[in-house]
Design brief:
single chain; TIM Barrel; 13% strand; globular
């Protein structure tokens, strides 16, 4: 496992991060989740990402239990706040001071830790003054409940505004967590450039595009049972937009490239995201330990420039790169 600095901070994280969105507390049983965490640790992963909203707080609880007994100083634990938790009352979501302060305390309790290494704003809150949000985050850092702060799926303008407050408050804003893959490149033009300027890194989610870039979905074929595409607990709705025949045909065209450098297609997908110098880490999930053991082999892989060009040529028009798509992830009102 290789390690990279997160932003311009002195914090190093594993370039493969284990994340438990959708899986822990919902898609897989707790004992399987614990086996996946052990496999991640055995593979050299030290960074773990979760959020209070995942499985309505259960994912944090499962991860905290699975990590019990590990040396805390060896781990980097990330979580996030914004989306509704609990009964979704009027203050059970967003980035108000009240919700942030209550949110971090709940996350620490569920994760069985005194602090998280990175506390992230899961979306931008249009109903809370940004100054209120950033002061709350700075207070959490000063209280020792979080060491660093980050954001997730924020636009370039939102990140710049937050960075201005962070600099004034002397709080370490060091990361953004966006969706990023060979098929979804909306951060490249604006978000990456502003983060390079301001000293933030990307921790990217869905590097294998919900499993589509693994090549297991064939154009014109039924969706395989037991996959995210047939998951009735929430996974299927996140993958529908990718299961178009033109996308799947293009993805199958990547198979010879993966074989040429002795990688599985999933490993190629993860390694591709890590070629971007502003990407500090790629988050992988798993419903069984074998998936982790496969995908961690993308760590340290360097894809030749010629093959990177061929990937672009093969995927062509199926790539989504419009930077305006990032703004569409900001809810227009609070979801509670």
């Amino acid at each position: 496992m290789e390690f990279r600095y997160l932003g311009r901070s002195g914090l190093k994280i594993s370039e493969i991060v284990y994340g438990n969105w959708i899986t822990h507390g919902s898609q897989v049983a707790d004992d399987t989740a614990a086996s996946c965490v052990r496999a991640a640790l055995d593979a050299g992963i030290t960074s773990f990402d979760t959020a209070d909203v995942y499985a309505n707080t259960l994912a944090e609880q499962v991860l905290g239990t699975a990590l019990r007994g590990q040396r805390r100083e060896t781990l980097q634990i990330f979580t996030k706040v914004y989306w509704p938790t609990g009964p979704a009352g009027p203050n059970d979501c967003g980035l108000s001071r009240k919700h942030i302060m209550e949110g971090v305390n709940g996350s620490l309790r569920r994760l069985n830790t005194d602090y998280v290494d990175l506390y992230q704003a899961h979306r931008f809150d249009v109903e809370t003054p940004l100054e209120e949000t950033m002061v709350a985050f700075s207070d959490i850092v000063r209280q020792g409940k979080a060491l660093y702060i980050g954001v997730s799926e924020w636009t370039a303008d939102q990140i710049r505004a937050a960075h201005t407050y962070a600099r004034e408050l002397h709080v370490p804003l060091i990361s953004n967590q966006p969706q990023y893959s060979m098929l979804w490149r909306v951060i490249e033009d604006e978000v990456v450039s502003i983060c390079e300027e301001l000293g933030l890194s990307q921790i990217v989610w869905s590097p294998v595009a919900q499993g589509v870039l693994s090549g297991k979905y064939q154009p014109g074929a039924p969706r395989p049972t037991g996959t995210r595409a047939t998951d009735d607990k929430g996974g299927a709705r996140f993958i529908d937009w990718l299961l178009k025949d033109d996308v799947l045909r293009a993805v199958q065209g990547l198979r010879p490239i993966a074989e040429e450098i002795d990688l599985s297609m999933a490993q190629l997908a993860v390694a591709w995201t890590l070629q971007n110098p502003n990407v500090a880490a790629a988050i992988i999930g798993a419903s069984r330990p074998e998936q982790i053991q496969e995908n961690v082999l993308a760590s340290g892989v360097k894809i030749p420039e010629g093959l990177m060009t061929r990937i672009d040529e093969i995927l062509g028009d199926v790539v989504v790169s419009d930077p305006a798509k990032t703004a569409e992830t900001t809810p227009r009102t609070r979801p509670c």
